[in-house]
Automatic annotation (TrEMBL):
Membrane topology (UniProt): Single-pass membrane protein
CDD domains per record: PDI_a_TMX3
Keyword Methyltransferase: no
Species this chain originates from: Loxodonta africana (African elephant)
Name used for this protein in its record: Protein disulfide-isomerase TMX3
EC nos: 5.3.4.1
Length: 420
């Protein structure tokens, strides 16, 4: 495979047999392989046990499991999107094709509009702007489609102030890149590569961190059909649609099913349904300071965030990092005991048992040492008493005719102590 892989385009899943996420991906991956083969795709689909071929996996930069890569010549593109069949296949088609795809006719342009939710178009001939566009596409092809067209192919509804130009088409409208207002082209494409309203999950939140935008999320239970759950979701959708020109540069909007991931991110228990505004680049968040009644009320809350009236919580300070370490450790321990109590007892009981034995041994050694020292002190005092008695006898002169008292022998232990 290592020697012949450059002859073909490969979509490879690098996995580990013990990895739980890899096991969840396996049936999806099998569906990807079957569908790609049935549609006649030039991309070959495979999987590799990265633990058995660790050196080869390291050569491709595999640092976690599962890792999905598309290998095209000397290039290797990482997939960082949702683990769904359609998203993975779309990634394979996008990256395996041409970097900049031409749009030769209006019919082709309309076909692309119907097929893709977000795509970028360069309009014009050769220019420094096109060079920047090609460079940006080579880095960001893993995220979006890039096309090129002449001015007469662009739909009549599109009004161009000047040519050449770069446009993004999404949310049933378009936006034109302005170097003065938007800065670097690649950064602008990174910020605009998502739709304005999204169904949010953990993977997507991680990707949204690169945009630098805040994310307004309605945290709901999609299985719950109560009025409050559906109302909050519809309010966020209304704001995203009606105020996209006003908030496009600073916010994304969406909803998330369930609060489990948000709880781990915020290190707090959120009541569902609710609205939370996340800054995924620095882990700050904003919670509602009042009840949201309608779209206008939601707009006022977002405006208050922009002008600094609403206080940000969380962040990435040293204190917050320490708090997160403790939270993650506690969460890990609880999850282990919930999933496998016996394994939890073994993992944590064995080290605690060893530490307890060591502590007992240290305590016992200290106690014996104290006893010996005490015994030594007693023997020393006895020796001093015996010396005093000998001196007293030597100072006394015996009377005539009185028998002299025989000398008292020192205890054997005292003599040995004295000798030492």
């Amino acid at each position: 495979f290592k020697q012949s892989r450059k002859d073909d385009i490969w979509l490879v899943d690098f996995y580990a047999p013990w990895c739980g996420h890899c096991k969840k991906l396996e049936p999806i991956w099998n569906e990807v392989g079957i569908e790609m083969k049935n549609m006649g795709s030039p991309v070959k689909v495979g999987k590799m046990d990265a633990t058995s071929y660790a050196s080869l996996a390291a050569e491709f930069g595999v640092r976690g499991y599962p890792t999905i890569k598309l290998l095209k010549g000397d290039l290797a593109y990482n997939y960082r999107g949702p683990r769904t069949k359609d998203d993975i296949i779309d990634f394979a088609h996008r990256v395996s094709g041409a970097l900049i795809r031409p749009l030769p006719s209006k019919q082709m342009f309309e076909h692309v509009q119907r097929r893709h939710r977000v795509f970028f178009v360069y309009v014009g001939g050769e220019s420094p702007l096109k060079e920047k566009y090609v460079d940006a596409a080579s880095e960001l092809i893993v995220y979006s489609y890039f096309f090129a067209a002449s001015e007469d192919v662009v739909p009549e509804s599109v009004v161009l102030r000047e040519v050449p130009a770069v446009l993004v088409f999404k949310d049933d409208t378009y936006f034109i890149y302005d170097e003065f207002e938007d800065g670097d082209l690649e950064s602008w494409i990174t910020r605009e590569r998502f739709q304005n309203y999204l169904t949010v999950d953990g993977f997507l939140l991680y990707e949204l961190g690169d945009t630098g935008k805040l994310v307004v999320i309605a945290v709901i239970d999609e299985k719950n059909t109560s009025i409050e759950h559906t109302r909050l979701k519809s309010v966020i959708q209304e704001v995203a649609q009606d105020y996209k020109a006003h908030f496009r540069r600073d916010f994304h909007f969406g909803h998330m099913d369930g609060n489990e991931y948000i709880n781990s991110l915020l290190m707090d228990e959120l009541t569902v349904p609710t609205v939370v505004v996340l800054n995924t680049s620095n882990q700050q968040y904003f919670l509602l300071d009042r009840q949201i009644e309608n779209a206008s009320d939601m707009v006022r809350f977002i405006d208050n965030i922009l002008n600094g009236t609403v206080e940000a919580q969380g962040g990435d300070s040293i204190l917050q990092r320490l708090k997160r370490i403790m939270f993650d450790a506690r969460t890990t321990v609880v999850s282990i005991f919930k999933s496998s109590p016996l394994m939890g007892c073994f993992l944590f009981g064995l080290p605690l048992g060893v530490i307890s034995i060591m502590c007992y041994g240290i305590y016992s050694a200290d106690t014996d040492g104290g006893y010996m020292e005490e015994q030594y002190e007693i023997s020393k005092s006895e020796m001093e008493g015996q010396d005093f008695m000998e001196e007293s006898r030597e100072q006394q002169e015996p009377s005539d005719g009185e028998p002299v008292m025989p000398p008292m022998h020192e205890p054997k232990d005292a003599l040995e102590k004295k000798k030492d």
